[in-house]
């Protein structure tokens, strides 16, 4: 598989604080890579190094086979879409005027404005001044701006942090559509549902180190306690270990028509994070 | 360094729309016009006063508007967006300077007409004004990059107004102090000496030194500005 991002033993130290401690991972073309961790774990620092806004203290990071320290040049920047905490909008201008400026900078048709505003569901308010928008709407405009030029690689730093569930779901649908078109997405979040629903692979970042990296499904299987819970008609629940030895018991409950539901007891990504790091993902 | 006129123009249009809604910065345009109007009431306006108005136009319109535009971009986190786009340093700095340059030219023409500036058609003086314009645009960009907000930029411009805008008025005050002699090498003093020489109908050779000093300042400011700008594209 072709890698778009390759990080090798990446270290970042601020003063005497090690923020990233020998990170090692690859992001492959066309995947949605989730970078999960609590606030202060080093997610944004990683994005800033990958987009050339910070230089590594040690180790290396390559984006499109180019050292991240050299990615900050026009020929590469047009391939990137970036949405981070320092992405601002012009408050006195309308949504449309903000996006029009970026159409000119990226040399794309202004017709794209309609497409991206539809994706973030803001097409009806494009003539509104940015200063009058809610935090969630502002976030959606910044996301729309990052998508304008159909970048090959999209960096999204907590893209749905200020959004309600309906809008988050819509954004997730849009991200999956982008993935279908071949866009690679590097997504940081501390929303485990978001990670589960859109990410092909996730990395757990804690204290500057990657604690786990795999597909969400594999992680759930790995940390599963291999049991199932049967919910019965009388309101009680029965927990059974997965395996042939319990097949007869399940069969008997079914014959007696006592089962309301059966589900396997796989942990959520949040449970796994707590298990691995010993702390909540907030 | 590549320059895309389409990008320069897009940034200019954006700045124009933003500034047209920013009354705080727009009112600074009135300062030189007000001075020109007040002094223009006299029967004759001395060359020294006319030059003070020219220098104040450079400081309060070129440098201040420029620094305000850049500082506000930093304050609102929009400058990084431009830096992380495919626009080159020249596209961004060119686009961001165009508005303050156009406003300066318009304001200065009005001020010179109001004060009946008789050297307005002198090619040597026009060239010196053009180089000074680039110097003040660069200085404004630098102030904008150094400050973090519009408010800070408004404070940072105050000493610049005194030294470069009104400094020539205090020439007699600094003459007894040899230590302050270096101020005569500031671009505003050099512009005044050059203008006086042009009025005496001096040859180009005689004013070459003044041109050299003003150009030297301009090149220095541009080098520092581009260096600081590139540093600002990083978070180190």
UniProtKB/TrEMBL annotation, chain A:
Q: InterPro entries this protein is in?
A: AAA+_ATPase, ABC_transporter-like_ATP-bd, ABC_transporter_ATP-binding, P-loop_NTPase
Q: Which UniProt keywords apply?
A: ATP-binding, Nucleotide-binding, Transport
Q: List residues of the ABC transporter domain.
A: 5-232
Q: Can you say what this protein is called?
A: ABC-2 type transport system ATP-binding protein
Highest taxon, organism lineage: Bacteria
Organism of this sequence: Melghirimyces algeriensis
Q: Name one Pfam family in it.
A: ABC_tran
Q: Kindly give the SUPFAM superfamilies that the UniProt entry links to this protein.
A: P-loop containing nucleoside triphosphate hydrolases (SSF52540)
State a single Gene Ontology molecular function.
ATP binding
Question: In the UniProt record, does the keyword Ubl conjugation occur?
Answer: no
Q: Which PROSITE patterns match?
A: ABC_TRANSPORTER_2
Automatic annotation (TrEMBL), chain B:
Topology relative to the lipid bilayer, per the entry, is: Multi-pass membrane protein
- The protein's predominant localisation is membrane
* Claim: rRNA-binding is one of the keywords in the record: no
UniProt key word Transmembrane helix: yes
Annotated Gene Ontology cellular components are: membrane
What the entry lists under Pfam families is as follows: ABC2_membrane_3
In terms of domain of life, where is this protein from?
Bacteria
Q: Where in the cell is it found?
A: Membrane
| Membrane spanning residue stretches | 52-71, 92-115, 127-146, 153-174, 207-229
Q: Which UniProt keywords apply?
A: Membrane, Transmembrane, Transmembrane helix
Q: Which InterPro entries match?
A: ABC2_TM (IPR013525), Nod_factor_ABC_transporter (IPR051784)
Q: Which GO terms describe its molecular function?
A: ABC-type transporter activity
Domain ABC-2 type transporter transmembrane as annotated: residue spans: 53-225
| PANTHER family found in the cross-reference section | NODULATION PROTEIN J
How is this protein named in the record? Answer: ABC-2 type transport system permease protein
Q: Please report the organism this UniProt entry assigns to the protein.
A: Melghirimyces algeriensis
